């Protein structure tokens, strides 16, 4: 695997899920795969799970890791091509990427959207420029449009928790005080659509419809209760408005996932990528219930990252 920015970079989704489960079952068996290899993790934005689970994954594979908060500890990065760099930006992304790839065999990059301009955000230019200018494979640690390591961990978690040949998975919008990126739901939809054991239904208020590039043929309804009926999995997430890009338009708390909402499902499991605003997105009772998978999902981030790094290291040999 030469890059991991979306599900389209994976040759066989079932195989990579199996690989994550195999590593999870026996992580000690992989200690030589990444010997003498260096992973660099570059963060333009905050992170807890991605930062720690990816480091944990690298250690399982015997890799070394360097982590940098590039927005805080590095030079201010210029991304425009051909500009006269006489303002506050001291270093061009093309130089930074080329230099870092001399130190690192694989590079992970996190770069959130600005939520100011949809076209600019959806060009995903920071991630694409890293692919262009770095000589090492790039792993997305969440870009402006997608969060593929999260989605892989989500699919692993769904497969572990249901044997049903067709699982009803509901991606539901939930309230939030801030406008959040669309990367997690975009990516989740894209991965679920590749899984032949998943029927995906998306529910959100009007004006929050995600781009069909990601949602494909998934059913969409603005009626959350109807969507939740008989669900096997409820995946809650806030994202900012799509018609008024980057804005909070709906503040309707009746979208919060409560025990009453979960009672509509078929003993459904609750999922969220975290961090979660408790009693805003979902109630404490749901998050702390037996049917909550939030900790399992977070744990599977390690094995999702290990499966991706393993596939990249295999390619290098
Ligand atoms: C990020 C997002 O894309 O929604 C990361 C999720 C893995 N989440 C946030 O930025 C939450 C921030 C907040 O204020 O709750």
From TrEMBL:
Domain Aspartate/ornithine carbamoyltransferase carbamoyl-P binding: 4-160
Residue sites binding carbamoyl phosphate per the record: 47-50, 75, 110, 147-150, 273-274, 301
InterPro entries referenced in this protein's UniProt entry, alphabetically: ArgF'-like (IPR043696), Asp/Orn_carbamoyltranf_P-bd (IPR006132), Asp/Orn_carbamoylTrfase (IPR006130), Asp/Orn_carbamoylTrfase_sf (IPR036901), Asp_carbamoyltransf_Asp/Orn-bd (IPR006131)
One Pfam family hit: OTCace_N
Keywords for this protein: Amino-acid biosynthesis, Arginine biosynthesis, Transferase
Residues that bind N(2)-succinyl-L-ornithine: 142, 176, 237, 277
EC category name: transferase
Tree of life domain: Bacteria
Keyword flag NADP: no
The protein's Enzyme Commission number: 2.1.3.11
Protein's GO biological process: citrulline biosynthetic process; L-arginine biosynthetic process via ornithine
Summary of the function given for this chain in its UniProt record: Catalyzes the transfer of the carbamoyl group from carbamoyl phosphate to the delta-amino group of N(2)-succinyl-L-ornithine to produce N(2)-succinyl-L-citrulline. Is essential for arginine biosynthesis.
Protein name: N-succinylornithine carbamoyltransferase
Species for this entry: Flammeovirga pacifica
Organismal lineage: Bacteria, Pseudomonadati, Bacteroidota, Cytophagia, Cytophagales
Gene, per the UniProt record: argF'
């Amino acid at each position: 695997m030469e890059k991991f920015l979306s599900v389209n970079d994976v040759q066989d989704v079932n195989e990579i899920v199996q690989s994550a489960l195999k590593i999870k079952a026996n992580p000690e068996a992989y200690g030589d795969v990444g010997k003498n290899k260096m992973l660099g993790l570059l963060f333009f934005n905050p992170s807890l799970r991605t930062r720690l689970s990816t480091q944990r994954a690298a250690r399982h594979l015997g890799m070394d890791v360097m982590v940098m908060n590039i927005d805080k500890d590095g030079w201010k990065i210029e991304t425009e091509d051909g500009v006269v760099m006489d303002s506050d930006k001291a270093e061009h992304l093309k130089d930074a990427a080329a230099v870092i790839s001399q130190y690192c065999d694989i590079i992970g990059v996190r770069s959130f959207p600005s939520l100011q301009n949809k076209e600019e955000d959806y060009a995903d230019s920071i991630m694409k420029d890293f692919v262009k200018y770095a000589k090492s494979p790039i792993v997305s640690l969440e870009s402006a449009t997608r969060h593929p390591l999260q989605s892989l961990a989500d699919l692993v978690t769904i497969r572990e928790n249901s044997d049903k040949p067709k699982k009803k998975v509901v991606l539901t919008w939930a309230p939030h005080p801030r406008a959040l990126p669309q990367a997690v739901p975009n990516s989740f939809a894209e991965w679920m659509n590749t899984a032949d054991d998943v029927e995906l239904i998306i529910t959100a208020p009007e004006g929050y419809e995600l781009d069909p590039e990601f949602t494909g043929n998934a059913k969409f309804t603005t009626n959350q209760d109807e969507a939740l009926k008989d669900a096997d999995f409820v995946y809650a997430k806030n994202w900012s408005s799509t018609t008024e890009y980057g804005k909070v338009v709906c503040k309707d708390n009746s979208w919060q996932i409560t025990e009453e909402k979960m009672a509509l499902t078929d003993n459904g499991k609750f999922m969220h990528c975290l961090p979660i605003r408790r009693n805003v997105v979902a109630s404490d009772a749901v998050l702390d219930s037996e049917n909550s998978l939030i900790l399992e999902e977070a744990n599977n981030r390690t094995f999702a990252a290990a499966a991706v790094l393993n596939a990249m290291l295999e390619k290098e040999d």
